[in-house]
Write a structure and sequence with these properties.
about 350 residues, alpha+beta, nine-stranded antiparallel sheet, about 15% strand
Length: about 350
């Protein structure tokens, strides 16, 4: 496992440094940020990006806009519904005998669908992977979106909007990934309380907690899996991306064939060497919120993973307090579904 840096000696900043500052190749670890919001037009979102980072806007449809050639890379702005962005809705209309073709008619239809869908489906700003030390630049975009009237998770009882962090790993070795996975499971209740997760998101299918039988399995002291076993166990116990920490993009990066052959949401998995952290709300309309809060909260997971003694103590305590009943129920449900 890579040696963590002594972050206590780092220069204080709003975005605190991670214990592992570099990736496995020695470069600075990168973070991709995805913000879901409503109450704002794609053109206004794009302007917030260009005003901060430069670049030019490419409008692909009413559902999808790109900002390319910024100083940090390319951004995507899209209505977060695959049926719309892929234009699969046209197939359904065609089956009903409705052909809208291309040109002005299609643009008008898509503009109408976009306005209606925007009542419950978020617009998503998807940033490129950037060095963690440049997260302040993304927060500058967040400030502009806030001033422009973007609405976040608490803006409506129907908004199950989230903030996603795609955090590049410091290593791809099983020992490090196991430590991080354990640390996240151990910090989950704390993160849930810190994040004050909105009811709409709690009952949505996107961030279901890990089943107890998997938590108990991972916490066993004798559990020292190879990377292959770590992936196989994940696919056996929890074969879905709908977890607060989605490991499937990372596992697909390590062994794409293995993950894509499993009974998971393969069409939605984008392989990348990153933890896909999906738990936080997107509170973009709240003036005292910033990207630093979910980032710094995440770092508590990394700090626990980087402290072997603290991790071992927390592991044994969690195992001692594990619920046999919850584990049995989770195991039974999994067997029924398989």
């Amino acid at each position: 496992m890579p040696e963590p840096a002594d972050t206590n000696k780092s220069t204080p900043s709003r975005f605190n440094p991670p214990p592992w500052t570099n990736n496995s190749e020695g470069g600075e670890r990168r973070v991709g940020v995805e913000m879901e919001m409503a109450g704002i037009e794609p053109e206004v979102m794009a302007k917030a990006v260009t005003a901060t980072l430069g670049g030019r806007v490419e409008r692909e449809s009413a559902f999808s806009t790109r900002v390319v050639d910024t100083e940090l890379g390319d951004f995507e702005i899209e209505l977060d519904a695959n049926l719309l962005t892929s234009r699969k809705y046209q197939q359904h209309l065609s089956e009903l005998g409705i052909e809208i073709g291309e040109g002005e008619t299609r643009e008008n239809v898509e503009a109408l669908i976009s306005r209606v869908a925007g009542l419950v489906v978020p617009l998503e700003l998807v940033g490129p992977p950037i060095p963690w030390s440049k997260l302040e630049r993304l927060d500058a975009i967040r400030k502009k979106l806030h001033k422009a009237g973007a609405r976040g998770t608490h803006g409506s009882p129907f908004y199950a909007f989230g903030l996603h962090l795609n955090i590049e790993t410091a290593s791809l070795k099983a020992e490090y990934l196991l430590a991080m996975l354990r640390a996240f499971l151990l910090k989950y209740d704390w993160l849930l309380e810190r994040s004050d997760i909105d009811l709409a998101r709690r009952i949505s299918p996107y961030i279901h907690p890990y089943p107890e039988d998997y938590v108990v399995h991972v916490m066993q002291g004798k559990y020292r899996p190879s990377i292959r076993r770590l992936i196989d166990d994940f696919l056996e116990f929890t074969p879905t991306r709908n977890r607060p920490l989605d490991m499937l993009p990372l596992f697909a990066h390590i062994d794409r064939k293995r993950v894509m052959a499993a009974d998971v949401e393969t069409e939605l998995i984008k392989p990348r060497p990153a933890f896909h952290y999906r738990l936080p709300n997107c509170l973009i309309d709240e003036p005292d919120w910033s990207l630093a809060k979910p980032w710094n909260d995440w770092l508590e997971v990394e700090r626990l993973a980087a402290d072997p003694e603290a991790l071992e103590t927390a592991r044994t305590d969690r195992l001692a307090g594990a619920s046999t009943l919850r584990s049995l129920i989770a195991s039974t449900i999994r067997k029924i579904r398989s």
